């Protein structure tokens, strides 16, 4: 059974339980299999040799997640071809595609953890009570080592965009 971190975070001030380990700077990023669409998957290896900013959101159809993804979409335009910005949620792939089209988001790769929630468990962000992935940020270098982690203590808070972007730029 996966490790549970009860009270590791809150939702509107109420404790929630995160399933999985708390990853740290220096850890090897766990490989993943996430859905790009209903028939095609993506893994960490698909982004080999690139710096990866992994932005995890509970659902694109909420205000904070919408703002977070739009912000990283804008930032992605200034980071160059050696960086990929991935947004992970448990939204269905066609819902992610619909949202991106409506929002004009075209520089972020959206990936869905809806099938198995294994990304959530492996990265320590699966919320037991909601079966959503907790808002968090991971910066992973070209060798798949984690160089920056931000687990948000409150689900409705925004991440520290400046620190995350600085962590990416430090690898370029």
UniProtKB/TrEMBL annotation:
The keyword Oxidoreductase applies. It is an enzyme of class 1 (oxidoreductase). The active site is at residue 65. Residues 23-172 form the Thioredoxin domain. It comes from the Bacteria. The keyword Oxidoreductase applies. Keywords: Antioxidant, Disulfide bond, Oxidoreductase, Peroxidase, Redox-active center. One of its GO terms (molecular function) is thioredoxin peroxidase activity. It catalyses: a hydroperoxide + [thioredoxin]-dithiol = an alcohol + [thioredoxin]-disulfide + H2O. Belongs to the peroxiredoxin family. Tpx subfamily. Thiol-specific peroxidase that catalyzes the reduction of hydrogen peroxide and organic hydroperoxides to water and alcohols, respectively. Plays a role in cell protection against oxidative stress by detoxifying peroxides. Homodimer. This is Thiol peroxidase. It comes from Paenibacillus xylanivorans. The gene is tpx.
